[in-house]
Amino acid sequence: MKRIYKTNEPAYLHLYHKIKADIVKNAYTYGGKLPSKRTAASIYGVSVITVEHAYALLAEEGYIVSKERSGYYIAYQEKDIFSATAFSPIEQTDPPHAPPSFQTKEEFPSSVYAKTVRHVLSKYGTRILVKSENFGLLSLREAIARY
Protein backbone atom coordinates (compact mmCIF):
# COMPACT_ATOMS: atom_id res chain seq x y z
CA MET A 1 0.00 0.00 0.00
CA LYS A 2 1.49 3.31 -1.00
CA ARG A 3 0.10 6.63 0.13
CA ILE A 4 -0.42 8.90 -2.88
CA TYR A 5 -0.82 12.25 -1.21
CA LYS A 6 1.47 14.37 0.89
CA THR A 7 -0.10 17.81 0.55
CA ASN A 8 -3.04 19.51 2.22
CA GLU A 9 -5.17 18.72 -0.84
CA PRO A 10 -7.99 16.24 -0.12
CA ALA A 11 -7.05 12.69 -1.00
CA TYR A 12 -9.83 12.25 -3.55
CA LEU A 13 -8.68 15.36 -5.46
CA HIS A 14 -5.09 14.21 -5.40
CA LEU A 15 -6.13 10.79 -6.69
CA TYR A 16 -8.35 12.43 -9.32
CA HIS A 17 -5.43 14.56 -10.59
CA LYS A 18 -3.10 11.56 -10.66
CA ILE A 19 -5.48 9.32 -12.60
CA LYS A 20 -6.43 12.17 -14.95
CA ALA A 21 -2.74 12.81 -15.69
CA ASP A 22 -2.23 9.09 -16.33
CA ILE A 23 -5.20 9.04 -18.71
CA VAL A 24 -3.98 12.11 -20.62
CA LYS A 25 -0.47 10.62 -20.87
CA ASN A 26 -2.02 7.42 -22.31
CA ALA A 27 -1.02 5.25 -19.37
CA TYR A 28 -4.59 4.01 -19.77
CA THR A 29 -5.80 3.55 -23.34
CA TYR A 30 -9.19 4.48 -24.75
CA GLY A 31 -11.72 1.81 -23.84
CA GLY A 32 -9.38 0.29 -21.26
CA LYS A 33 -10.69 -0.66 -17.85
CA LEU A 34 -9.67 1.12 -14.66
CA PRO A 35 -8.98 -0.91 -11.53
CA SER A 36 -12.04 -1.60 -9.41
CA LYS A 37 -12.69 0.80 -6.54
CA ARG A 38 -11.48 -1.76 -3.99
CA THR A 39 -8.35 -2.57 -5.97
CA ALA A 40 -7.53 1.11 -6.51
CA ALA A 41 -8.09 1.81 -2.81
CA SER A 42 -5.62 -0.94 -1.96
CA ILE A 43 -3.06 0.23 -4.54
CA TYR A 44 -3.14 3.88 -3.48
CA GLY A 45 -3.64 3.36 0.25
CA VAL A 46 -6.93 5.25 0.46
CA SER A 47 -10.51 4.35 1.26
CA VAL A 48 -13.00 3.03 -1.28
CA ILE A 49 -15.05 6.22 -0.76
CA THR A 50 -11.99 8.30 -1.76
CA VAL A 51 -11.64 6.31 -4.99
CA GLU A 52 -15.38 6.58 -5.58
CA HIS A 53 -15.22 10.38 -5.31
CA ALA A 54 -12.21 10.57 -7.65
CA TYR A 55 -13.90 8.30 -10.21
CA ALA A 56 -17.10 10.37 -9.98
CA LEU A 57 -15.15 13.54 -10.85
CA LEU A 58 -13.44 11.81 -13.75
CA ALA A 59 -16.82 10.57 -15.01
CA GLU A 60 -18.37 14.04 -14.70
CA GLU A 61 -15.62 15.49 -16.85
CA GLY A 62 -15.91 12.76 -19.46
CA TYR A 63 -12.59 11.04 -18.86
CA ILE A 64 -14.20 7.75 -17.85
CA VAL A 65 -17.58 6.07 -18.12
CA SER A 66 -19.22 3.71 -15.70
CA LYS A 67 -20.78 0.53 -16.98
CA GLU A 68 -23.17 -1.05 -14.53
CA ARG A 69 -21.82 -4.23 -12.94
CA SER A 70 -18.75 -4.02 -15.14
CA GLY A 71 -16.58 -1.16 -13.91
CA TYR A 72 -15.07 2.07 -15.15
CA TYR A 73 -13.68 2.49 -18.65
CA ILE A 74 -11.54 5.18 -20.28
CA ALA A 75 -13.58 7.52 -22.50
CA TYR A 76 -10.85 10.08 -23.16
CA GLN A 77 -9.35 10.46 -26.61
CA GLU A 78 -6.86 13.17 -27.48
CA LYS A 79 -8.76 13.96 -30.68
CA ASP A 80 -11.84 14.91 -28.59
CA ILE A 81 -10.05 17.84 -26.97
CA PHE A 82 -10.27 21.21 -28.68
CA SER A 83 -6.87 22.73 -29.26
CA ALA A 84 -6.04 26.15 -30.65
CA THR A 85 -3.18 24.53 -32.57
CA ALA A 86 -5.66 22.33 -34.41
CA PHE A 87 -6.59 25.31 -36.60
CA SER A 88 -4.19 27.50 -38.47
CA PRO A 89 -5.03 30.70 -40.38
CA ILE A 90 -3.74 29.13 -43.62
CA GLU A 91 -6.29 26.31 -43.48
CA GLN A 92 -9.17 28.63 -42.68
CA THR A 93 -11.63 28.90 -45.56
CA ASP A 94 -14.40 30.93 -43.90
CA PRO A 95 -13.96 34.58 -42.94
CA PRO A 96 -12.73 34.93 -39.32
CA HIS A 97 -16.11 36.22 -38.13
CA ALA A 98 -18.12 33.32 -39.57
CA PRO A 99 -19.02 30.41 -37.31
CA PRO A 100 -17.97 26.91 -38.37
CA SER A 101 -20.39 25.46 -40.88
CA PHE A 102 -21.57 21.98 -39.99
CA GLN A 103 -23.75 20.48 -42.70
CA THR A 104 -25.21 17.73 -40.51
CA LYS A 105 -25.50 17.10 -36.81
CA GLU A 106 -23.19 14.09 -37.23
CA GLU A 107 -20.33 16.44 -38.17
CA PHE A 108 -20.57 18.34 -34.89
CA PRO A 109 -18.29 16.83 -32.22
CA SER A 110 -20.92 16.47 -29.49
CA SER A 111 -18.50 14.77 -27.10
CA VAL A 112 -16.27 17.86 -27.22
CA TYR A 113 -19.28 20.09 -26.59
CA ALA A 114 -20.42 17.97 -23.63
CA LYS A 115 -16.94 17.97 -22.05
CA THR A 116 -16.64 21.73 -22.54
CA VAL A 117 -20.03 22.36 -20.95
CA ARG A 118 -19.13 20.15 -17.96
CA HIS A 119 -15.80 21.94 -17.58
CA VAL A 120 -17.40 25.40 -17.64
CA LEU A 121 -20.15 24.39 -15.21
CA SER A 122 -17.67 22.81 -12.80
CA LYS A 123 -15.42 25.89 -12.96
CA TYR A 124 -18.10 28.60 -12.62
CA GLY A 125 -21.00 26.74 -10.99
CA THR A 126 -24.16 28.77 -10.53
CA ARG A 127 -22.30 32.05 -11.18
CA ILE A 128 -22.70 31.36 -14.87
CA LEU A 129 -26.48 31.56 -14.52
CA VAL A 130 -26.46 35.05 -12.98
CA LYS A 131 -27.63 37.80 -15.36
CA SER A 132 -24.72 40.02 -16.36
CA GLU A 133 -24.63 43.80 -16.40
CA ASN A 134 -26.08 45.72 -19.36
CA PHE A 135 -22.61 46.26 -20.82
CA GLY A 136 -21.71 42.58 -20.45
CA LEU A 137 -19.74 40.61 -17.92
CA LEU A 138 -16.73 42.57 -16.66
CA SER A 139 -14.36 39.59 -16.85
CA LEU A 140 -15.40 38.94 -20.46
CA ARG A 141 -14.94 42.61 -21.42
CA GLU A 142 -11.47 42.57 -19.79
CA ALA A 143 -10.52 39.36 -21.61
CA ILE A 144 -11.60 40.86 -24.94
CA ALA A 145 -9.66 44.04 -24.19
CA ARG A 146 -6.51 42.00 -23.40
CA TYR A 147 -6.96 40.05 -26.62
Calculate the mean pLDDT score and round it: 79
Strand order of the largest sheet: 1-2
Strand content: 5-15%
Distance between the termini: 49 Å
Count of helical stretches? 5
Biggest beta-sheet profile: 2 strands, antiparallel
* Secondary structural class: mainly alpha
Q: Could you name the CATH homologous superfamily of the largest domain?
A: Winged helix-like DNA-binding domain superfamily/Winged helix DNA-binding domain
CATH class of the largest domain: Mainly Alpha
Q: What would CATH call the architecture of the largest domain?
A: Orthogonal Bundle
Protein architecture, described:
- Helix 2 crosses helix 3.
- The protein folds into two domains: 79 residues, Orthogonal Bundle (Arc Repressor Mutant, subunit A), CATH 1.10.10.10; 41 residues, no CATH class.
- The radius of gyration is 19 Å and the shape is globular.
- The chain is built from five helices and two strands.
- It is mainly alpha-helical and 147 residues long.
- The longest helix has 15 residues.
Write the layout of secondary structure elements.
Blueprint (H helix, E strand, L loop, with lengths): L10 H14 L12 H8 L3 H13 L3 E4 L3 E4 L35 H15 L13 H9 L1
Helix pairs in contact: 1-3, 2-3
Q: Can you tag this structure with a few keywords?
A:
Arc Repressor Mutant, subunit A; 147 residues; 2 domains; mainly alpha; two-stranded antiparallel ribbon
